[in-house]
């Protein structure tokens, strides 16, 4: 039987850890569960945009592995960031040539943070690439992205699980967090301290929205990977896939969302 429910999925930010979202989507698709509306912050917005444009999870993983992302980023001589993200636009244009929310095969909402107005902004129409860049613009590392005279940084600053655009629109909402922290962790140096503190903050605004999700998938231990640990991409992808297979086996009610082709 085909499910007629409107299935929304929310993908968190998390840098390279966001590749786990692709593994999650592959596992859901394996069970014929195909979300028909997406919302995402940062890495979740990137993964969501590529999937919604028609790429399969495996194809997106291949794109990430074969692309040297940092060659598209150059130093920024400014007081607001160390790197300029605009130079990544060439990369996005290659894989998202239509550069339009309306051209996507599946509706997508992208969350970003309006840095001057101190509020979350949701993008779901018009140009696609600038909001994606804004949503993944880590403050202090990248220059803010300007869109229509406003300046934006990473969506995860204020909303790392943007469930609000799907609330009341979808019958079922699946939330995915790619930043699980172990309950205890030995802090060995200042780098560990900063990383754990930042992830704790990100997870706080994820967990405050968890109860809005009908299903919440969180692959364990992903916080051990660095934000830019690209060599671990296949491993992170597999972690997302394995965690979702286990989740489905333990929550069989989600199989009611399966669709027959």
Distance between the termini: 10 Å
Helical content (DSSP H or I, runs of 4+)? 25-40%
Oligomer: single chain
Low-confidence segments, ≥5 residues, pLDDT <50? Answer: none
How many strand elements?
Answer: 10
Please identify the structural class as seen in this structure: alpha/beta
Shape: globular
Largest sheet: 8 strands, mixed
Beta-strand share of residues? 15-25%
Return the average pLDDT rounded to an integer: 89
User: Whole-number radius of gyration?
Assistant: 17 Å
Count of helical segments?
Answer: 7
- In N-to-C order, the SSE pattern is EHEHHEEHEEHEEEHEH
Tell me about this structure.
- The chain is an alpha/beta fold and 261 residues long.
- It is 31% helix and 16% strand.
- The chain is built from seven helices and ten strands.
- It has helices spanning 20-30, 43-52, 57-66, 89-95, 129-135, 190-207, 233-250, and strands at residues 7-11, 37-41, 74-75, 83-84, 108-114, 119-123, 145-147, 150-154, 172-176, 215-217.
- Strands 1, 2, 5, 6, 7, 8, 9 and 10 form an eight-stranded mixed beta sheet that branches. Strands 3-4 form a two-stranded antiparallel sheet.
- A hairpin with a 2-residue loop joins β7 (145-147) and β8 (150-154).
- α1 (20-30) runs antiparallel to α3 and α1 packs across α7 (233-250).
- The chain is globular, with a radius of gyration of 17 Å.
């Amino acid at each position: 039987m085909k499910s007629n429910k409107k299935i929304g999925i929310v993908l968190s930010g998390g840098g390279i850890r966001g590749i786990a979202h692709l593994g999650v989507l592959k596992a859901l698709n394996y069970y014929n569960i195909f979300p028909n509306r997406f919302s995402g912050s940062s890495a979740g917005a990137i993964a969501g945009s590529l999937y919604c444009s028609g790429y399969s999870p495996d194809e997106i993983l291949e794109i990430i592995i074969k692309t040297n992302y940092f060659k598209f980023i150059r130093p920024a001589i400014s007081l607001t960031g160390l790197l300029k993200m605009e130079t990544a636009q060439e990369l996005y244009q290659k894989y998202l040539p239509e550069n339009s929310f309306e051209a996507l095969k599946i509706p997508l909402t992208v969350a970003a943070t309006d840095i001057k107005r101190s509020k979350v902004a949701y993008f779901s129409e018009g140009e696609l690439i600038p909001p994606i860049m804004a949503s993944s613009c880590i403050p202090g590392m990248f220059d803010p992205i300007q869109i229509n005279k406003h300046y934006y940084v990473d969506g995860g600053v204020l909303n790392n699980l943007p469930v609000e655009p799907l609330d009341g629109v979808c019958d079922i909402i699946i939330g995915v967090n790619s930043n699980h922290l172990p309950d205890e962790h030995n802090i060995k140096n200042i780098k560990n301290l900063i990383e754990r503190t930042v992830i704790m903050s990100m997870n706080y605004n994820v967990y405050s929205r968890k109860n809005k999700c009908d299903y919440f998938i969180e692959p364990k231990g992903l916080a051990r990977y660095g934000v830019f640990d690209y060599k671990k991409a296949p491993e992170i992808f597999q972690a997302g896939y394995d965690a979702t297979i286990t989740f489905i086996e333990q929550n069989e009610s989600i199989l009611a969302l399966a669709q027959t082709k």
